[in-house]
Write a structure and sequence with these properties.
Chain A: It is a multi-pass membrane protein. The complex is a heterodimer of chains A (260) and B (227). Chain A has 260 residues and is an all-alpha fold. In chain A, 83% of the residues lie in helices and 0% in strands. In chain B, helix 4 packs antiparallel against helix 5. The mean pLDDT of chain B is 82. Classes of the chains: A mainly alpha (260), B mainly alpha (227).
Chain lengths: 260, 227
Amino acid sequence: MCRTFAARNEVPKAGKSDAGYITTANGKPKAASRRPAPITLNEIKTLIWKEVTLEWRQKYAISGMLLYVVSTVFVCYLSFNLRRNQLTPIVWNTLFWIILLFTAVNAIAKSFSQERHGRLLYYYNLCSPQAIIISKIIYNSLVMGVLSVLGFVFYAFVMGNPIQDNGLFSICILLASTGFASVLTLIAGIASKADNSATLMAVLSFPIILPMLLMTIRLAKNAMDGLDWSVSTDEITTLLSIDLIVITLSYLLFPYLWRS
Amino acid sequence: MRKIWWKILCVVIIFYVIIWGFIGPVPRLAIINESIRNTYFHVALWLAMTTLLLLSMVFSIRYLMKGNIKDDDIASEVAKAAIFFGILGCLTGSVWANYTWGDPWPNDPKLNGAAVGILIYLAYLLLRSSFEDEQRRARISSVYNIFAFAVFIPIIYILPRLTDSLHPGSGGNSTFGSYDFDNNIRRVFYPAVIGYILLGLWIAELRIRIKQINRVREEALIESGKL
């Protein structure tokens, strides 16, 4: 039955990953999704690979996001009237993270809504929900990592680069992209169930992401001033623990979301 | 009469808090002076609100485990009562801040956290209103409710303590209970928390009953239409 369903809905053609689904599904998909299912690394790997292939096949999505970052940065650059000398470090920092926040919301909002209903049903039959949410989080973190690094390079190119401690700043980017990705993935899952999902996505995610954003901005400020790493341990541990809480909650709650 | 004792208890406690809160003895402290009486209202309201939100989350978890729609009714109405208390807590805090810190809304991490917390729960209400189907609404908003509470606690109680805040317990300020929280205050403060929690439950209970009556009537209408 799964196979006929697959054929009708033109599921990703990658033959290898298809085989992967079938072996993990064991022919008892419903029971598997209700129990805290035995998720295998293999399953997650296959799912991530599927996301990458899908993305690669329809390049407009990722290139659209890249263009989004670049044009936003450029708009900011022009709006500040080309006077980069007058840009204080605080404004530089805040502006960068707000651009990244909006990029993240836009990039991740599509992670559930882009999938058609039939295809979602297909996944529902084959994989455990935990594997799906984990793979989506990992994949979105990768996308966010790539987007924020490229965004940073372009931003630094046009707006100047006042950062003194590059190592700490890259840790900051890493933590922020995983954090944004994990919060927004669950919220995107919630919002995609409703009708006006674009508005809901913004309304639901902004207040929740705020503590993370503030911590990130503070950490990035430390990196810009080149302060000693011991000053920033507080921020790093807080960010890590928020990430951990959010990922655990997503892991626990997503199965309930998935069923409806 | 259906278990009316706790409602009577609630009324008695609230009157006790109002009367004894205004005429009872309080410690004299610089700057705060008589406004320390606001502890009975502002601080107690926030504590009551957090308790109600915790309760709401527990019922959301119960809904997800058992799938009984009544649990979701309870969760949502208790959350609404908690939001009401949150807004009252903000207002009383604002009055207090105006006379002690000289500004109704000083730029303080705890205040901003409180505003964000209320935004989170308003978003919860918005999320609820955007579904037609009852079971679907219940399930998805329960998921969000649990998630929201897990983010709400760090925003209100953990993050402000890491930074400088005007509130007690952060940025080198001492916490309550260390030296200025004497027995005179305790005698009113703890009943106040209990009283507000009971009041919130009462409000929620009335609304839950209205909801359930409406549901029964709707079902009856549908039945009669079919028959």
